Amino acid sequence: MMESSVSICPVPTEQQPINEYQELQESWFFRWGTLDLPNYIKKLVWVWGVSWMVAGPWASASFAPTRYTVQFLLCGAAGAGVFLALTLLRLYLGWSYVRDRLLKETIFYEESGWYDGQTWTKPPEILTRDRLIVSYQVQPILKRLKRTFGILILLVFGGSLIWNFL
């Protein structure tokens, strides 16, 4: 029964929420949110570490590493943290966009360009499937990203406390 509803779906294949979700799952970058915890952390540490290539010289220009070692480390870590935060934000925005498309009862799509937008109302079985995907697949990813943001904020707060005592 679900196959017949899917086959009459007028939404172009690449704009169907289920296909957008599968595309994110298979994407090199957005798949990071689906990795097991050790690999997820490795990716984030890698981004933070590579970000030091920009943040380190900037921090050393502000604080001589040999004279102000702690300030240099805190400034560089914060600078690298900005790149990490932007990476996390991009992951979050991508997954939340797909979540919103999966949750919506009515889907907006474009047939051939920006000037001919249409809407399509999902049949109940597709809406149920999409909402189950959100509940069991997408929400845990968003929850992990929110927790990661929270940890990053705590680290920034801790760094600022250390900075105040220098």
UniProtKB/TrEMBL annotation:
Signal peptide: none annotated. It comes from the Bacteria. It comes from Allocoleopsis franciscana PCC 7113. Coiled coil: none annotated. InterPro entries: CGLD27-like (IPR009631). The chain crosses the membrane at residues 44-64, 70-93, 148-165. Keywords: Membrane, Transmembrane, Transmembrane helix. This is CGLD27 family protein.
